[in-house]
Amino acid sequence: MTSDVATDQPTRKRAPQGDADSPGDPGTARPEPRGWAWSLARFGYRDRPPTSLRERLVPSYTDNSAYTGGGWLPCILVTLLAGFIRFWNLGKPKAVIFDETYYAKDAWSLLKLGYEGTWPKEANDQILAGQTDTLQTQGSYIVHPPIGKWTIALGEQLFGLTPFGWRFALAVLGTLSVLMLCRIGRRLLRSTLLGCVAGLLMALDGLHFVMSRTSLLDLVLMFWILAAFGALLIDRDDTRALAARMFKDGPDATRAATARFGLRPWRIVAGICLGLACGTKWSGVYVLAALGVLTVLWDAGTRRACGARRPYRATLRHDVLFAFLSTVAVALGIYIWSWTGWFLTDNGYFRHWADDRAGLSPDHVLGIPLPQFGMTWVPAPLRSLWHYHAEMWSFHTGLDSPHPYQSNPWSWLVLGRPVAYYFETVHQGTAGCTEQDCYQTVLGIGTPLLWWTGVVAVGYLLFRWAGRRDWRAGAILCGLAAAYLPWMAYQQRTIFLFYAVAFVPFLCLAVTMMLGALLGPPGATERRRAWGTAGVVAIIALIAWNFLYFYPIFTGETITRSGWLDRMWFSTWI
């Protein structure tokens, strides 16, 4: 992990030697005044030493990864742990839980019809009994794009329309996202250890764990957001490495203002990932906008480091257009492509809405009127899709029906109101119940000690970003804010805590960065390092214990009523 410190230790100035008759205590050292700078120096903090342009552009890793295969070995071990606990008893509970009633059946419909068909009211019981042929060809009104449901369909294609089948792909993505976070944390913080800590924290987060074992869309959204962030991080490193080669003789203001960095394949990969995120849920649009701005700011930082006097002007001239095409344009193309099944079939909802119409619906966007005549040059399927999206937008913005598990986004970080995906009462003598009443429940809630530590970590990152101009803190906060803050604009809408899984990776990165600071800078004393290490180990151990403590109510295991009540720490969790 890079640090703003030097490795030398604080020193004290010695006073001039006096004779025996001089006042004071001749021959003893007189320490300099113990101010704030002296206090920081005790812990190894010093001004950043001069570094070369290459080291500023591409900081080195703090560990020798030759013994760990480039850092892959420990990352894979963390991933194997995450995969084991996510796939263990994945088909339990054998039930259609919460919104699986929509997405599991829609995914099967996409496999069979290419669009979302309709099902009879008793379809859930029939499916659990093995009867999967009750799907009807009439198009069903849906309110989310199809990528997440196609993802669920991959597992159903392999294992059938069963609880294990419709949860399989989510467990795969949940496991792979832990691996991605290990590598992203390693690259961002320049430490294999800290990268693995980030991955381990997410592996032990209750909300990520439950969403990895439930057939909902939000974990798919999280996966593609994280993948896009990682692709842009690789693009940043590659671009700065190229700049280091181009400016090996040092900064050059003229060249830095006109340099072109050529093809940026990883930024195109990010655009594809962001398109898949938007094709899962529309909230991916906010992340697309935020990460698009972030990658442009990173380009400006590269030009500034290379000597450009007006880096933002140079970036505007040479980088913004290509960044837009690589992210926004590519994402739009991927999004439209995601509706291929709807385009190629005839019975999808609103599929032929525009066949006998020449205009658009609605007739305005954000108060701007749209032409209603002369639009026949736009293919009818595209106008039908536009109308479908207008109806979906109306549904999302007008959704205010009360729900017992809805929550305000202000309460998410402190886990104010979790979501009970599944709840069954079992009686003594059945399913391992040892009391009069026992419960089997799946509760969608983050690991409390991890999230509450995350609140402190977010405050620390705000200080690092605003007070110390630490770009790593800014990058993490950007991802977290893009996936979280837009929900603040929908105070009256019916929304749920599990939407927050989209920013869980960034919350884990925030905690990891704070733990890295707690470990101490390279120049800290051995005592400081020992205390820092003990603190970090204690925090991780408490988070691991907290995950294990809540594990029975994450997985639907039989738990006594008293044991369940012990885990309901607040009345709002019931």
TrEMBL record:
Report TM segments.
Answer: 66-88, 164-184, 191-210, 216-235, 320-340, 449-466, 473-490, 496-519, 531-554
**Protein O-mannosyl-transferase C-terminal four TM domain sequence ranges:** 382-573
Q: How does it sit in the membrane?
A: Multi-pass membrane protein
Tell whether Membrane is among the UniProt keywords. yes
Its Enzyme Commission number?
A: 2.4.1.-
Q: Which GO terms describe its cellular component?
A: endomembrane system; plasma membrane
Q: What superkingdom heads the lineage? A: Bacteria
Q: Could you tell me which InterPro entries the record lists for this protein?
A: ArnT-like_N (IPR003342), PMT-like (IPR027005), PMT_4TMC (IPR032421)
Per the record, the pathway is: Protein modification; protein glycosylation
**Cell location:** Cell membrane; Endomembrane system
Q: Does the keyword Metal-binding apply?
A: no
An example of a GO molecular function for this protein is: dolichyl-phosphate-mannose-protein mannosyltransferase activity
Q: Which residues form the ArnT-like N-terminal domain?
A: 77-296
Its main localization is membrane
Q: PANTHER family given for it?
A: DOLICHYL-PHOSPHATE-MANNOSE--PROTEIN MANNOSYLTRANSFERASE, PROTEIN O-MANNOSYL-TRANSFERASE 2
Q: Which family does it belong to?
A: Belongs to the glycosyltransferase 39 family.
Q: What does this protein do?
A: Protein O-mannosyltransferase that catalyzes the transfer of a single mannose residue from a polyprenol phospho-mannosyl lipidic donor to the hydroxyl group of selected serine and threonine residues in acceptor proteins.
* Name of this protein: Polyprenol-phosphate-mannose--protein mannosyltransferase
- The record lists the organism as Embleya hyalina
